[in-house]
Amino acid sequence: MASFLQISDDEKGHELGLFCIPKHYEEDLDRVLIPHGLIMDRTERLARDIIRDMGGHHIVALCVLKGGYKFFADLLDFIKALNQNNDKSVPLTVDFIRLKSYSNDRSTNKVKVIGGDELSALTGKVTVSLQDIVETGKTMETLLALLNEYNPKMVKVVSLLVKRTPRSSGYRPDYFGFEVPDKFLVGYALDYNEYFRDLSHICVITEHAKEKYKV
């Protein structure tokens, strides 16, 4: 069973004034839920767990864009550092796929896959899919069905966040950093209509900002 850090529903988070927040977002955020330093510490631990479990396998690390790019880059940096300083190391190659399932702050329940036609390199390989957040689980189930068409040797899923929500299908990734409340979160590459990807911390967006950036 995956180990994770649970953030409770009544967690108040941290005042924005305690952190460096881009000026253009100061009025758009309610609070900081997960500071960048804590994200990095959990990501480093996930890298250790993956090395422990996967050492000896050649891994294809599949980045789920766009929201997963920051987590993907940081996790691979930690794995690279461990590879250089450990007795056990993991050979890595990388690939990318883009999924889209949101309009404003609502899941459309329709998953659009972009770039899923060049995944033949996964055949017979151990594939680790990395993404930013698992919410209902339907997006991930769609992706897994696609990946299995290429007959990988094994697929493991790593997600930075898993959201506690009554809309969940019950799917849980193999590794994840945090279990979070059912709130719309932005930052650390999590976006709202492409905004907030340039925010270092994971924050709760205000209702005002949802209207401001609505498309």
Describe this structure in words.
The protein is α/β, with parallel strands linked by helices. Helix content is 25%, strand content 31%. The model has no long low-confidence stretch (mean pLDDT 90). It contains 4 helices and 10 strands; from the N terminus they run ββαβαβββαββββα. The N and C termini lie far apart (39 Å). The chain is globular and about 50 Å long. α1 crosses α2 (69-85).
Compute the CA-based radius of gyration. Answer: 17 Å
Structural class: alpha/beta
Write down the overall mean pLDDT.
90
In the sheet with the most strands, the strands line up as 1-8-7-6-3-4-5
Query: In percent, how much strand structure appears in the residues?
Result: 25-35%
- Head-to-tail CA distance between termini: 39 Å
Count of separate DSSP helical elements: 4
Biggest sheet character: 7 strands, mixed
Q: How many β-strand stretches?
A: 10
Task: Pick out the low-confidence regions.
Answer: none
Looking at the structure, what is the overall shape? Answer: globular
Run of helices and strands: EEHEHEEEHEEEEH
Percent of residues in helices: 10-25%
